[in-house]
Amino acid sequence: MSDLHARHRAVLPDWLALYYKEPLEITHGEGRHVWGGDGKKYLDFFGGILTTMTAHALPEVTKAVTEQAGRILHSSTLYLNRPMVELAERIAQLSGIPDARVFFTTSGTEANDTALLLATTYRRSNQILAMRNSYHGRSFSAVGITGNRGWSPTSLSPLQTLYVHGGVRTRGPFAHLSDAEFIAACVEDLKDLLGHTRPPAALIAEPIQGVGGFTSPPDGLYAAFRDVLQEHGILWIADEVQTGWGRTGDHFWGWQAHGRSGPPDMLTFAKGIGNGMSIGGVVARADIMNCLDANSISTFGGTQITMAAGLANLSYLLEHDLQGNARRVGGLLLERLRAVAAQLPAVREVRGRGLMIGVELVRPGTDQADPDAASAVLEAAREGGLLIGKGGGHNTSVLRIAPPLTLTVAEAEEGAAILERALASVH
């Protein structure tokens, strides 16, 4: 055990998860690469959990942060804040939500917490619909709506949560159906559920489930759900913490794959917008955002230095069409990994969209998750110079691949080759 690992264990919680048998310290990064305390260079295909969205040490973001730090770091929301207003204007316009208002937080957890506060206050109900296999954060209320046992340390909650079918396409009672039949069955399940309960406040859903292993329903499911929800006045919250900002390639927001019935009432965001700085937030219709009848502020949400980073990062993303790059390079990477998987009986499925790809591992010849294999591939990939993530619902057996959106074709090919060797070495 390294000295730093020993010190970590002595002062930090046991439940603070670390990757790898010999945990890695990352000392610095540039572009799509990072360097470890071991002196080794790694190709980064996880971006600090989908957070380093554009590139490590992106000069435009570094410059914006440095210049802002030389003026003022922070003042709280009790004072007018030009960078916060400017970023809110841009996000409101990009959100697709009419008459939008934006509230900034410091994380996706806090963003979802705020959305739940708004929804339950607006609807005067503490019932929430959530998706099975979902993950929405680590706060008390966010854990209470998380449908993933591995990330739900308590059943206590201020909310009553009802879980809906549909977030996982290839497992569960409807997996054998066609896409159209799958959507119809999930809609009927939702209607049946609503017939047995008091009116819920909202449905919260990740367009692509992140921690759950990059699973998603057929396009249009949440549009079909929205038709039912609107009949009952139930709000739709799109959790875009991992799917936002063009990562899926086909769309700027994940909800747009389900946009036939209009935008969500609220969307939550975080991670990639700050490129490593702590930014989260909620976008909501004005009548929902303004429904609170008590004072509120944010000490650190929207602070000047994080807003400067967000503005520079968003500008870079839009000016360089990183959504288009995610679509093009992600499409090539997805096909390359599917070709690899076709030769390996332990790979059940390669799925995803853009630069958000999941590789699900099972015990060969079965549908049983194989978390030991996933951990072994993670180790082998690191040995080969590639950092990836893992996740999954019933068991952690999905490799999660989410590089910075500036990934080049050559880097995608390099990463795929390392991953192919890692998969072959384990199986």
Determine the mean pLDDT: 97
SSE pattern, N- to C-terminal = HEEEHHHEHEHEHEHEEEHHHEEHEEEH
What strand order characterises the main sheet? Answer: 4-10-9-8-7-5-6
CA radius of gyration is 21 Å
Portion in beta strands? 15-25%
Shape: globular
Termini gap: 28 Å
Largest sheet: 7 strands, mixed
User: Uncertain segments of ≥5 residues (pLDDT<50)?
Assistant: none
Number of helices: 13
Question: Which class best fits the helix and strand makeup?
Answer: alpha/beta
Throw out a few tags for this protein:
single chain; 427 residues; alpha/beta; seven-stranded mixed beta sheet; four-stranded mixed beta sheet; 15 strands; 37% helix; globular
Question: What report would you give on this structure?
Answer:
The chain is of the alpha/beta class and 427 residues long. β7, α8 and β8 (235-239) form a beta-alpha-beta unit. It is globular. The mean pLDDT is 97. It has 13 helices and 15 strands. α4 packs across α10 (304-319), α7 (179-194) packs parallel to α8 (221-232) and α12 packs across α13 (409-426). The chain has a seven-stranded mixed β-sheet, with helices on both faces. The protein has helices at residues 3-11, 47-50, 59-69, 82-95, 108-123, 140-144, 179-194, 221-232, 286-289, 304-319, 322-341, 371-383, 409-426; strands at residues 26-30, 33-36, 41-44, 100-105, 127-131, 160-164, 202-205, 235-239, 266-269, 280-285, 347-353, 356-361, 386-387, 389-391, 398-401.
